[in-house]
Amino acid sequence: MRTRALERIRIQPLKGYGMFDAVFTHGSRFAYRGITSFILFRHALDTETAAHDPKLDKFRTSSPQTLFVGVTAKRRTRPAVVRNRIKRLLRVSVRNVAQRFLASITHHNNHIVSIVAIVLVCHIIPERPSLLRLSDIQPLVERIFHNAYRSLRSMSPSL
After folding, report:
1. Cβ(112)–Cβ(65) under 8 Å?
2. Could you tell me if residue 155 is inside a domain?
3. Omega of the bond prior to 79 within 30 degrees of 0, cis?
4. Which of 1, 111, 136, 148 has the fewest CB atoms found within 10 Å of its own CB?
């Protein structure tokens, strides 16, 4: 049963300025140790301010089991090779954490995925980029998902 829940969650890339801007504008901000995230919850699509925003149409028409993911790194993280490595590690860790974390929430609570989109902004400037590993980044992303879920539970106690 758990493997079916894992298969149902689809992760799509967040593309275009409009989609990023919609998540920044209507999403909730979470930060943890050099990573800032903006998370767009499903209930935010139904608010009065979001009802008239055409940038959110892509999120409204998407499948309830789709999670849009965008990853950026600050330009001050130089050179570009290091920035790209950080972004790759963030994408992999989001994929790992989202599949496991959101599937377990969906499996235990029998509801659709409440997170529509997430944008991660990395402020980390490693001293030795070659030593930066997935095991360094993934716990930070797990903590962000955990904080987002706690925030969601406080807004909606039925979760």
Report:
1. yes
2. no
3. yes
4. 1
CATH number for the domain spanning 135: value is 3.30.230.10
**What does the pLDDT profile of the chain (159 residues) look like in tens digits?**
444 444 568 899 999 999 999 999 999 999 999 999 999 998 889 888 788 888 999 999 988 888 999 999 999 888 899 999 999 999 999 999 988 876 666 555 545 568 899 999 999 888 887 888 999 999 999 999 999 988 888 876 555
Which residue range forms the structural domain that includes residue 83?
2-150
Is residue 158, in this structure, part of any structural domain at all? no
- Strand spans (E) along 14-74: 28-32, 35-41, 66-73
Q: Can you give the length of the chain in residues?
A: 159
Residue 59 falls inside a structural domain: yes
pTM above 0.90, yes or no: no
Is there a domain that residue 143 lies in?
yes
User: Can you tell me the distance from the alpha carbon of 152 to that of 102, in angstroms, rounded to the nearest whole number?
Assistant: 13
Split into its structural domains, the chain has a count of 1
90 within 8 A of 138, measured Cβ to Cβ: no
